[in-house]
Design goal:
- This protein is α+β, with helices and mostly antiparallel strands.
- The protein has a single domain, classed as Ybab, Chain: A, CATH 3.30.1310.
- The chain has 2 helices and 3 strands, in the order H-E-E-E-H.
- A 3-stranded antiparallel beta sheet has the order 1-2-3.
- A hairpin with a 4-residue loop joins strand 1 and strand 2.
- Helix 1 runs antiparallel to helix 2.
- The longest helix has 31 residues.
Length: 111
């Protein structure tokens, strides 16, 4: 036979869990800034490196890519969008690691 906890104690457990999750989320956000993802376009003519907190930290463009400005603009756009997707996926994985066992509607990593 299972004895239920009084409602007040269940609320305290939940509050404690949420406080722990909040602290872990702050740490995860800091940690994301230390990880990077890299995306390329045009067979490597454009390379974008983005931190996990979605800051672009490096842009590399091959000299020959500057010959066609319209194509260069498209390659930069493609590489930035790909790097952003990768950084978002990294963040979702980190959040999922923290919230996965709590049954919360966010942070599952599913898109």
């Amino acid at each position: 036979m299972r004895v239920a906890k009084p409602k007040g104690l269940r609320g305290l457990d939940l509050a404690k869990q949420l406080a722990e999750v909040q602290a872990r989320m702050v740490e995860a956000q800091k940690d994301l800034g230390q990880h990077t993802v890299t995306a390329t376009a045009g067979g490597g003519a454009v390379k974008i490196t983005m931190a996990g907190d979605q800051r672009v930290v490096a842009v590399e463009i091959a000299e020959e890519a500057a010959e066609d400005w319209e194509l260069l603009q498209e390659m930069v756009l493609v590489a930035v969008n790909d790097a952003t997707k990768q950084a978002q996926a990294l963040a979702a994985r980190k959040v999922g690691e923290i919230t996965g066992g709590l049954g919360l509607p966010f942070g599952s990593g599913a898109e």
